[in-house]
Amino acid sequence: MTATAAPTPQQVLERVFGYPAFRGEQQQIIDHVVGGGDALVLMPTGGGKSLCYQIPALVRRGVGVVISPLIALMKDQVDALDAVGVRAVFLNSTQGPDERREVERALLAGEVDMLYMAPERVTVPSTAELLDRLDVALFAIDEAHCVSQWGHDFRPDYLALSMLHERWPTVPRIALTATATAATAREIEQRLQLGEARRFVASFDRPNIQYRIEPKNQPVQQLLQLIRTEHPGDAGIVYCLSRASVEKTAQQLADHGIAALPYHAGLDARVRANHQSRFLREEGIVMVATIAFGMGIDKPDVRFVAHLDLPKSVEGYYQETGRAGRDGLPSTAWLAYGLQDVVQQRQMIDRSEGDGAHKRRMSQLLDAMLALCETVECRRVQLLAYFGQQSERCGNCDTCLAPPESWDGTIPAQKLLSTVVRLERERRQRYGAGQIIDILLGKRTPRVEQLGHADLATFGIGGDLSDQDWRGVVRQLLAQGLLAVHGDGYGTLVITEASAEVLGGKREVRLRREVARPTRSSKRSAP
Ligand code: ADP
Ligand code: ZN
């Protein structure tokens, strides 16, 4: 790009990026920033946020400064811009002094259209002094939700970005994120001093993604079934909670002939970079990863995102599943979750550092995720409602395709809750789900014998349901707040205030019948 005569946004779109038309609100956003206004852009992953700051950076005089936490991706982003003739550079901790000096020289010589840098660089005095000497076209703050202390991606360095406005008050700022609850948006505005910014909120619906959530029985077998019947040879991402389960799952998939690679923060940096680039460049790689993987990854043809463990929040779930189907073609978001997930997440919250308010907030985030898992309504309606958007039944999620039956679970709930109560009152003891279910089923295990649990009045009264059915009952009661995990760190169960209404016969309990989930009839058919 030459800086002589300013081209229009439409001209840049066509000539530089090779696209005929803007998408959604891109044009309005770009016009607003070109005109010098601040903007807060809430747009789902794949919505086209990058052009919203890249084009104004090219249209306005000076260099566009992009602040991004994704150091690992900066080189790729800069290379991609270079390839279309945009003069882009980056400043980050991976560079040596020579390389940095060359970048500074080019910047001062006016040879640069866009500068990418990590948030921690901006506050370094030498960087700020460098920016003082440049004509800055705009500041783009990517992944702006990282400023939210309540959020799942908090980065302390983002808090310092309020200095942008203080030090360079006339430079327009555009903050962008794919996380869009009203609370996060308010927090971004407040912490980044974007009170005057215009807010642009795109629809969060991703109609080509089919959302499915099913009970977890044999997760790897369930996943293999999904891959073989619906996504053979497709690229996908499988999220697991721990590094150990990432490694194990990747190995198991590989043993079954799936091109699976592990990715987590504990792997050697070179291995990680290699796996990431293979995932991006080769076809049909299944990346098994912790949530350390994926932010900023631009791979349009990820056909499925699978979760083998329960995400901590709907925000996280939405963002992770949003990496499927950026190209608009049918894709699957599949989650398997079980009783153990609920217990484990509750324990993690109890053990986490942070004060009571923090734990309550984490609990609320988890409750919303559980409500999405247990809903008998359209998943998409519930998901979008969480982000403040109303919608109609979608016809392309598991509950729309095969509406789950619900059944009157009051009596099983009473049997279970009264077992918990009796153990607590008569024995002054608490137990986890396994022992309570053994009692209900009347199993004379060594532990039952030793503890004398066969003498309890509820021993053996639950033989009408199977072990797995009971686990489903416990899970759903936990999700409905009719049962709770005690904060002792052992995953023991306790009753709640609401349990008393059930035990007293004042409250009916509806449970979701766990049915086999539908599979899509033909792999590429339209939703
Ligand atoms: P986000 O950052 O919101 O996740 P990107 O900016 O990476 O999304 O854009 C997602 C994809 O859509 C990219 O491949 C991008 O080139 C493409 N894209 C963005 N805007 C347009 C447009 N107006 N026309 C065609 N393709 C576009
Ligand atoms: Zn639906």
Automatic annotation (TrEMBL):
Enzyme Commission designation: 5.6.2.4
Cellular component GO terms held in the UniProt record: bacterial nucleoid; cytoplasm; replisome
A GO term, aspect molecular function: hydrolase activity
Residues covered by the Helicase C-terminal domain: 219-369
Cofactor: Mg(2+); Zn(2+)
Keyword Transcription annotated: no
Isomerase among keywords: yes
Domain of life: Bacteria
Keywords annotated in UniProt: ATP-binding, DNA damage, DNA recombination, DNA repair, DNA-binding, Helicase, Hydrolase, Isomerase, Metal-binding, Nucleotide-binding, Zinc
Membrane-crossing segments per the record: none
Reactions listed under catalytic activity: Couples ATP hydrolysis with the unwinding of duplex DNA by translocating in the 3'-5' direction
Any single GO BP term: DNA repair
All residue ranges annotated as the Helicase ATP-binding domain in the record: 30-198
Family under the similarity heading: Belongs to the helicase family. RecQ subfamily.
Protein name: DNA helicase RecQ
Residues of the full protein shown: 1 to 527 of 694
